[in-house]
Every structure is written in C-alpha cells, then in structure tokens.
Write a structure and sequence with these properties.
The protein has helices at about 1-15, 20-40, 50, 55-75, 80-85, 85-90, 95-130, 135-165, 165-180, 185-200, 210-220, 220-235, 245-270, and strands at about 45, 130-135. With about 270 residues, the protein is mainly alpha-helical. The chain has one domain (about 1-185, about 220-270). The longest helix is centred in the middle third of the chain and has 33 residues, at about 95-130. The model has no long low-confidence stretch (mean pLDDT about 85). It comes from Halogranum gelatinilyticum. GO terms for molecular function: ABC-type transporter activity. This is ABC-2 type transport system permease protein.
C-alpha cells in the first residue's frame, strides 16, 4: 500500500499550493471565453459541443496548455527529491523505487486532473442555464478525456524525472518532447511530404501507403491520438463505424504513453546509484 501513501502526500502537497487555485481559475476563464466566442452575436441557442470544438478549448486549452502545464508540474517529481536529498529519506521508509515512481504519477495526475475538471465544470453550471443545447454526457466525457490527456503528459514527465540524474536534463527532455509534439509536429512531417511528392510516392519495400504513414505519425503524437478519440466521442461515433480500428489504436496509444515512459524511467531509476 506504500505507493498510495506516496501518491496521497504528493496530491495533498499540490492541493495546498497556490498554483492549483491559479490553474483552476485559468481553465475556468478560458472555457468561459470559449462560451463567449461561440455564443451567437444576435442571441439564440448554440451547442455545448460547439464550445468544446472551438479553437480556444480544443487547440488552446486542451492540446496546447494542458500538456505544457502537466510537463512543467511533473518533470521534477523524482529528480527534484533526488537533488534535495529527500529521496534517500523517502526510500528509507517502506517504499520501493516503483512505489515512488508510480505514486508520483498518480499523485501528480490527480493534481492536474482536479483543476481541469473544476475549470470545465464551473462554466457548465452557467451553460446549463443559458440558451443552448447542453449535452451533459458529451461535456462530462470530454472533460474526463481532457483530464486523462493531462495524466498522459504527467506520466511522460515523471518517466523523464525518474530516468535523469539532474533536474536540468529532466526539464530539457520534457520541454523537448513538448516542442516536438505540439508546435513542431507539423514541421517534422513536412520533409516527408516533400520527399513523397518528389519521389512519386512511397518506396515499394515499405508496406504502408502515404496516408497510412501520416495516420501513424498522427497516432504517435499523444495530442493527435487525443484529437482522434475526443473528436469521435463528441460526434457520437467512438469505436463505431469504419474508423473504429483507428479509434482503438488512438486510445491504445494514449494508454501506452501513460504507462511506458514511467516504466522506462523506473528501469533506469532502479539501476541508478543515489
């Protein structure tokens, strides 16, 4: 049960900090801004799904801001205690290194999920009273998916934190992945697009077509997989129809990003000399 103790302490420390209130306020204001932008100028009804699909929520809050906050919040989870010397004290208690890593993942995941859920649901109270078609199931489901995306990036950051010997390296790794996945992913794919155009298509030895390659690249990016899952969910088509396999692959990729980096970080952490 010791990993639960690590997670509880990590979460309680986060709840007592001022930044949690700040994050909750920020998410609430941004979702409220999306409501204001989507609301028809001349009055009338509008859909809560339109709010969730707006640029402010989908591309601003969800896939740009939340990954950044999660990475910044979690990159020092393990290596920070290692640098301060408190990690040796923590491991002198009945905690294994696996307890520390996965306890940190759980605790910091709760710390990012709480402001996300509150930040989305507070505007929902006003939305439910306003002139719109409020789809409760879709709104709550999207909120939980968004919180899960934050947990995925927490897992990535904690994995780096456990594997690295210094906070500087952990921060560089986490921020490097953020830059790759969020602002630079399109630039990474651009040379491939040019190559395929100039070469006349995919080489014969590669068992994939051009669209399949770009679909795979989209899946490899956790924000791309999230957009596939959340978009299908809001349209009421998740795991159904001709794209069901794509939805399953995207959901599997998100779970993989949540679990694999902490496992790799733990593998390196187990062999580290503290």
């Amino acid at each position: 049960m010791s990993w639960q103790a690590v997670a509880r302490k990590d979460f309680e420390d986060a709840v007592r900090s001022r930044w949690l209130l700040g994050l909750t306020t920020l998410f609430t204001l941004l979702v409220s801004l999306a409501v204001y932008i989507v609301r028809p100028a001349g009055g009338g009804t509008f859909s809560s799904n339109a709010v969730l699909n707006s640029i402010v929520v989908k591309d601003g809050v969800t896939t740009t801001l939340i990954p950044l906050i999660a990475l910044v919040m979690a990159y020092s989870a393990v290596v920070g205690e290692r640098a301060s010397g408190s990690l040796k004290l923590l491991l002198s208690l009945p905690h294994s290194r696996a307890d520390v890593v996965f306890g940190k993942v759980l605790g910091r995941s709760g710390a990012i999920a709480l402001p996300v859920v509150v930040g989305f649901l507070l505007p929902a109270l006003l939305l439910a009273l306003g002139p719109l078609n409020f789809a409760v199931g879709s709104y709550v489901g999207y909120t939980l998916l968004t919180a899960f995306l934050g947990c995925v990036f927490v897992g990535i950051a904690v994995g780096f934190s456990a594997a690295m010997a210094s906070q500087r390296l952990a921060m560089a790794g986490a921020m490097g992945l953020y830059l790759l996945f969020v602002p630079l992913w399109g630039a990474v794919q651009f040379p491939l697009q040019i190559y395929l155009q100039l070469s006349g298509g995919v080489p014969g030895w590669l068992p994939l077509t051009g669209p399949e390659i770009f679909r795979l690249l989209r899946l490899l990016n956790p924000t791309g997989s999230f957009k596939i899952v959340s978009g299908a969910f809001l349209n009421g088509q998740l795991f159904t129809g001709g794209s069901a396999n794509l939805h399953v692959a995207a959901a599997t990729m998100l779970v993989g990003w949540l679990l694999l980096p902490p496992l790799l970080g733990l593998w390196k952490f187990e062999r580290a000399d503290l």
